[in-house]
């Protein structure tokens, strides 16, 4: 993910739909209004929240019909990755959907 961003961040949270503010606070370590996101009530989106230790520096919505993090996340819990661990391998599936899987150190 570092190669795709032009701003400083130390971790990214892959945030699923319907996760409440309390999940965002636990994942980020500070309050953040996740329930206000336009993606909150929709299965059609995954939200990436880029943060430093004390603030959100950027966030984006990804349409799950184009990019799917299904192999990287559980649908009901946010996943927190340090910048050095946020490395994904993409494959293009049926209808051009890009599936992103976390790359694990030492795997081919």
What brief labels describe this structure?
108 residues; mainly beta; four-stranded antiparallel beta sheet; three-stranded mixed beta sheet
Kindly describe this structure:
By secondary structure, this protein is mainly β. It has one domain. 7% of the residues lie in helices and 33% in strands. The chain has one helix and seven strands; from the N terminus they run βαββββββ. The strands form two sheets. A four-stranded antiparallel β-sheet has the order 3-2-1-5, covered by helices on one side. A three-stranded mixed β-sheet has the order 4-7-6, with no helix packed on it. A hairpin with a 5-residue loop joins strand 6 and strand 7. The two termini are 18 Å apart.
Q: Whole-number radius of gyration?
A: 14 Å
Helix content range: under 10%
Shape: globular
Tell me the strand order in the biggest sheet: 3-2-1-5
Provide the succession of SSEs: EHEEEEEE
Q: Give the tally of β-strands.
A: 7
Task: Give the low-confidence spans.
Answer: none
Overall mean pLDDT score?
78
Structural class: mainly beta
Counting DSSP H or I runs of 4 or more residues, the number of helices is 1
Largest sheet composition: 4 strands, antiparallel
Q: Give the termini separation.
A: 18 Å
How many domains in all? Answer: 1
What is the percentage of strand-forming residues? 25-35%
